[in-house]
Amino acid sequence: MRFCRRLFGLLALLMVVAATQAQAEKFVVGYQPYDTISYQAIINSELGLWKKYVPQGTEIEFQGALQGTVVANNMLADKAHIGYMSVMPATILCSKPEQAVVKMVATAGMSEGTRCSLVLVRKDAPQFKSNEELARWLDGKVIAAPKGSASDQYLLKFFEKYKVKPAEYLNQSIEVIGTNFRIGKLDAASLWEPTLSRIATDVGEGVARIAADGRACDNPDLGIVVMRKDFMEKYPDVAKGYLRSELEAQRYLLDPKNWSSVIDMVAKHATGVPKKVLWYSIYGQVPSDSKEPVREWKSFYFNEREKQNIAEVAPFLQKDKRIKDLPPAGTVDDAMARQVFKEAGYTPVSDKITLGVINGAPASACPFKD
């Protein structure tokens, strides 16, 4: 009898320990504080939206990185479970199922190429009447981009379309690109918001100028939320709950009455960047003389335009030998996101755009002066 009581007590203790371990399970979200596709991750973190939708006791750590490739590498190493990145690093990540099977589960936002698909030229460069004229000026120049990024992808497509032959095409981080523009060591570059607006002429330092955007070579910007498949299968309630919080964060970001509070939150993470630059990086009209009013749209799940972009990028990267194999069938899997949207009771604004658009505003509309 005494033995049975001891055995029962031991089993009860083991159950308590197991329950405590389950409650203490921690998951890592990799995001980029210096990239507008991660602004909703910052909103999610600051407002604690995820706490409303994941199982009680779940812990989520938001881990910042300066580039999507860093987030991707962490996911391959099982150091992150959810990630925010552009279509190029997402495609490269998902093309390595022998290391980890990763799914593209939601879209973080899309534009016609006004976030990370732009050519910046030095401030004393001539005014160009056409993209062809810009391309000929770029011949023989020193050009840079963070390799493996969506900006790198954009320049590769621009070079291919206009047969640009730079003197050097350098792999530089966003910080180094900014520094080299300031000291006159770069002729042109491509990088993403908000660093782009920080160094450009509209609201920034004015050490560089926007000369072309994604429409120059039909290269839109697409942000993607990715998840490890083993995480989704082992913790479906956490994965689904996080996607619900992502949905609410995107809706919060779109609402004009929240724009100032969004920037207040982002400023805590993108340290050193003026608030007027952060505001313009997501809500401003870029390029400032653009005839297209829509800066970006949010669809949460993948509509046809998003699917088409992913389908075009993978073969391009394979041709350029950035990936060996195409991502496996079923990589784009937004079934959970669509279920979350349906259960939330929302209605798509159109058959092409699910949540809404951001119409770019002039710099004069910015509520921040610093």
Describe it.
The protein has a 5-stranded mixed sheet with strand order 2-1-3-10-4, with helices on both faces. A 5-stranded mixed sheet has the order 7-6-8-5-9, sandwiched between helices. Mean pLDDT is 94; it is low at 10-22. It has 2 domains: 21-110 and 221-365, D-Maltodextrin-Binding Protein, domain 2 (3-Layer(aba) Sandwich); 119-216, 3-Layer(aba) Sandwich (D-Maltodextrin-Binding Protein, domain 2). It has helices at 2-23, 39-47, 68-76, 87-94, 131-138, 150-162, 174-182, 195-199, 229-234, 236-254, 259-269, 275-283, 304-319, 335-344, and strands at residues 26-31, 59-64, 82-86, 102-111, 119-122, 142-145, 168-171, 188-189, 208-212, 221-228, 294-298, 356-359. With 370 residues, the protein is α/β, with parallel strands linked by helices. It is globular. It holds the Pfam family NMT1_2. Residues 1-24 form the signal peptide. It comes from Fundidesulfovibrio putealis. This is Nitrate ABC transporter substrate-binding protein. It is found in: Periplasm.
Structure in a nutshell:
The chain is of the alpha/beta class. It folds into 2 domains: 21-110 and 221-365, D-Maltodextrin-Binding Protein, domain 2, CATH 3.40.190; 119-216, D-Maltodextrin-Binding Protein, domain 2.
CATH architecture annotation of the largest domain: 3-Layer(aba) Sandwich
| Class based on secondary structure composition and strand pairing | alpha/beta
- Low-pLDDT regions: 10-22
* Fraction of helical residues: 40-55%
- The gross shape turns out to be globular
CATH class of the largest domain: Alpha Beta
| End-to-end separation | 75 Å
H/E series, N to C?
Answer: HEHEHEHEEHEHEHEHEEHHHHEHHE
In what range is the share of β-strand residues? 15-25%
